[in-house]
């Protein structure tokens, strides 16, 4: 897809950052939110299906409670999220009613993605809402999420939602005009990058840190673009405060940064595997196995395993690492950890002699295995 193809897309996920929603931490910017609601309504009039992933609850809650915006204490963040979410949704609902639109609040945590049944239920719910013309407004369920299993930032959540519902475009609206070649606040020669492949190795150099209110920054947006590409979804990063930015981007105006990919979309099950944050154990695999699962898309055989770490049950998610502890793949195991330890390093033909039975020739079937770049 190039920018011109954006005119033809039908399903769009729009992510809004805390800074632009709360006017850099001074409180919910109702004029800005009303402008977004107006633009989204215009898109619906053109037949577009829109899902919003919205930050802002924690920042709004911090202000309402008089807490320090720099706080990273999980209990304070959870409390602020609970308080701020009510104000955030009330503002959206009120503004969308000005344009005779209906909204739905959806709070999601990692367990909704980790559990396959809940994952499919969430997919069906969101698709049903948009088929009825309702605008889903999604946020991470920060009130109950723990640091160990949170998405980390709403950029990643937005990308996972884009995968979940087979979106065509992920639009990340931020307080920056897009991705620059250098930090424009310190380098007068910095230039806005209009278009770049997500496979371009210069991307990491261009990305900076997170802002005061966000947990992401450009690094998280690049990560989100790579996640979104797994389902064939392209990404646009643009300044949310630019006048009528959504309409102008959909009209292919040269605003922001267009992050494109030429990779083939993954099937739904492998997209789901990539969206997991938790794993139950770890398998250290040799160089031959690394090549087999990464380059040849083969199943993981017991002979390629050199070490088993942790405790896991059959069917649970484990990660596979090389000898340098770099993750190379993850997947659902056919044997539990005690069985895997016994057959690690053995040929598949030896499994029945070692265990007395044989459930499968492989430790992880290729259909339940996804390589990690």
How do the helices and strands line up, and which of them pair or pack?
Elements: E1 11-16, H1 18-21, H2 30-45, E2 49-54, H3 57-65, H4 74-97, E3 103-108, H5 110-114, H6 116-131, E4 135-140, H7 154-165, E5 169-174, E6 195-197, H8 203-206, H9 218-228, E7 234-239, H10 245-250, E8 257-260, H11 268-274, E9 281-285, H12 287-294, E10 305-310, E11 317-321, E12 327-332, H13 337-343, H14 351-355, E13 369-371
Parallel strand pairs: 1-2, 1-5, 2-4, 3-4, 5-7, 6-8, 9-11
Antiparallel strand pairs: 7-8, 9-10, 11-12, 12-13
Q: What percent of the residues sit in helical stretches (DSSP H or I)?
A: 25-40%
- What is the H level of CATH, i.e. the homologous superfamily of the largest domain? Acetylglutamate kinase-like
Q: What is the string of SSEs from the N terminus onward? A: EHHEHHEHHEHEEHHEHEHEHEEEHHE
Q: How much is the average pLDDT? A: 88
Could you list the spans in which at least 5 consecutive residues all have pLDDT below 50?
209-216
- In whole angstroms, the N-to-C terminal distance is 22 Å
Spatially, the strands of the biggest sheet line up as 3-4-2-1-5-7-8-6
In brief, what are we looking at here?
By secondary structure, the protein is α/β, with parallel strands linked by helices. It has 14 helices and 13 strands.
Protein described:
This protein has 373 residues and is of the alpha/beta class. It has two domains: 268 residues, Acetylglutamate kinase-like (Carbamate kinase); 93 residues, Archaeosine Trna-guanine Transglycosylase, Chain: A, domain 4 (Roll). 36% of the residues lie in helices and 18% in strands. An eight-stranded mixed beta sheet has the order 3-4-2-1-5-7-8-6, sandwiched between helices. It has a five-stranded mixed beta sheet with strand order 10-9-11-12-13, with helices on both faces. It is globular, with a radius of gyration of 22 Å. About 2% of the residues have low confidence.
């Amino acid at each position: 897809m190039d920018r011109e193809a954006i005119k033809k897309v039908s399903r769009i996920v729009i992510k809004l950052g805390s800074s632009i929603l709360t006017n850099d931490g001074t409180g919910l910017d109702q004029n800005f939110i009303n402008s977004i609601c107006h633009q989204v309504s215009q898109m619906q009039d053109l037949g577009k299906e829109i899902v919003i992933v919205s930050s802002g609850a924690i920042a709004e809650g911090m202000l309402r409670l008089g807490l320090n915006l720099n706080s990273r204490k999980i209990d304070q963040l959870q409390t602020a999220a609970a308080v701020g979410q009510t104000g955030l949704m009330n503002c959206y609902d009120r503004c969308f009613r000005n344009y005779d639109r209906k909204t739905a609040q959806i709070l999601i945590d990692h367990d909704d993605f980790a559990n396959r049944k809940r994952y499919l239920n969430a997919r069906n719910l969101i698709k049903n809402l948009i088929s009825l013309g309702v605008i889903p407004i999604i946020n991470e369920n920060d009130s109950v999420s723990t640091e160990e299993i949170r998405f980390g930032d709403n950029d990643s959540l937005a990308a996972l939602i884009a995968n979940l519902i087979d979106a065509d475009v992920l639009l990340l609206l931020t307080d920056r005009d897009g991705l620059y070649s250098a930090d424009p606040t310190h380098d007068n020669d910095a230039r806005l990058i209009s278009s770049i492949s997500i496979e371009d190795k210069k991307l990491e150099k261009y990305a900076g840190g997170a802002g005061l209110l966000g947990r992401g920054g450009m690094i998280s947006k690049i990560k989100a673009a790579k996640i979104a590409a797994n389902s064939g979804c392209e990404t646009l990063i643009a300044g949310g405060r630019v006048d009528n930015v959504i309409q102008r981007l959909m009209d292919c105006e040269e605003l922001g940064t267009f992050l494109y990919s030429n990779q083939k979309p993954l099937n739904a099950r492998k997209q789901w595997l990539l969206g997991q944050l938790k794993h139950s154990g770890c398998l250290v695999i040799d160089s031959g196995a690394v090549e087999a699962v990464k380059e040849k898309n083969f199943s993981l055989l017991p002979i390629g395993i050199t070490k088993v770490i942790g405790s896991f049950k059959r069917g649970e998610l484990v990660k596979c690492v090389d000898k340098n502890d770099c993750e190379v793949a993850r997947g659902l195991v056919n044997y539990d950890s005690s069985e895997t330890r016994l057959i690690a390093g053995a040929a598949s033909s030896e499994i029945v002699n070692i265990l007395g039975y044989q459930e499968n020739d492989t430790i992880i079937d290729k259909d339940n295995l996804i390589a990690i770049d």
